[in-house]
Design goal:
The chain has two domains: about 230 residues, Spore Coat Polysaccharide Biosynthesis Protein SpsA, Chain A, CATH 3.90.550; about 200 residues, UDP N-Acetylglucosamine Acyltransferase, domain 1, CATH 2.160.10.10. The protein is an alpha/beta fold. It has eight helices and 39 strands. Bound molecules: uridine-diphosphate-N-acetylglucosamine and calcium ion.
Amino acid sequence: MSTAASTHSTGLSVVILAAGEGRRMNSRLPKVLQPLAGRPLLAHVLDTAHRLSPQRILVVYGHAGEQVRAAFPDESVQWVLQERQLGTGHAVQQAVPHVPDDDTVLVLYGDVPLLGAEPLARLVRIGAAGELALLTMVPEDPAGYGRIVRDASGRVARSVEQKDATPEELAVRECNTGVLAAPARRLKGWLAQLRNDNAQGEYYLTDVIGLAVAQGATVTAVSLADSIDALGVNDKTQLAQLEAVCRRRAAQALMTAGVTVVDPARIDVRGSVTHGQDVFVDVNVVFEGTVKLGNRVRIGSGCVIRDSEVGDDTELFPFCVLDGAVIGAAARIGPFSRVRPTTALGPGVHIGNFVEVKNSTLGTDSKANHLSYVGDAQVGARVNIGAGTIVANYDGANKHRTIIHDDAHTGSNSVLVAPITVGEGATIAAGSTVVHEVPAGRLTIARARQSTLEDWQRPVKKPK
Ligand code: UD1
Ligand code: CA
């Protein structure tokens, strides 16, 4: 992919504004950390910035600053503190001293997460040519956005915030996305002239537009074809709207790649899904983190799958929760199964309803079909874990391992107190609590012997 940086001679500095509190969110979590498709808003903007291959990325942070920085420990960006949030213009003022005069500056907003790299590369090209480039849009609902005011000949004159606009200006449908690009030297000059005599008492970045026009600079508006890409997130309603956009796009990508998605409005992809052919996904499935699905995998409704791999021809019945699991081919999981981290299930394994498996391996064709807990266990092939079998892996202080060899059967309602080994082909009688090694090939019974009292009589009610 050709990058914006390679198309102009000077360097590119991207400034991302992320210092605001996001009061309209009514949340303790700073706005730029609110999750969209499973990742903080700011992570989406950083991705876009990286795709432009800039010389430097400056992130202006301030409100809940340490929390914001801590969320991106591995980011190779320059963090610039804006101690008091005096407006978007003031925020950019904090960043530009770190930008060489000959650079082109692109300003992105931390709460505008869906912008693609192409329109931004266009802005950068215009900015690199010495002009002020703005990204504008015509959203369905302009409420809250700055409006682009044009002069009689149709040239951009300035941008006016909703709170400062006259009724005529409010009727304008062309809105400011806030995103702009300009030569650093000129931008610094305009920023130095900003004033805060407006409805919000803030230094608006958007005022540089009017200042640039007043000084005879060329101002070019690039209008986005699809305003959805530039929607900002100020409140939870807008966050949900963007989540719906992400959902639709993720579902579309899966369907284009051949996945049957029963209802694209009822699937969430909070991360990445790779898959084989003829995968079927029923309604209300949530994918999180990194998920790999083989060929012909079928996922029943209501499953939540996080950071897991599912092999060819495996079927997940409804309402399974998988987290950090590797599941082999032709397995059958659920309904209502929970598979927890560092579990590996071999081919042909069956895990049934109300069965929890944690940090365990189950070999080929082993089964735990009903109401069991299998934790910290190494289970061989063709093992049958009977209904209600519990692996008691925890003594109240430490976890211990259990080894169950090939072809063993555990009876219903048996308890295996770890650490313990069950030999190959062993059978444990129903209702047993085993605490010692269970020998191979034998039946082991560990429960009180059944007895019947021949002369026992049921008490009868005393006559009154
Ligand atoms: C801003 C624009 C508006 C545009 C809209 C597009 C201004 C004055 N207005 O309005 O024209 O239509 O975005 O979404 O720029 N921030 C800081 N420091 C501050 C203030 C804000 O870093 O002192 C950051 C915020 O964290 C946020 C971004 O700047 O990421 C935008 O701020 P916000 O208050 O949401 O601006 P809007 O009212 O949406
Ligand atoms: Ca905003």
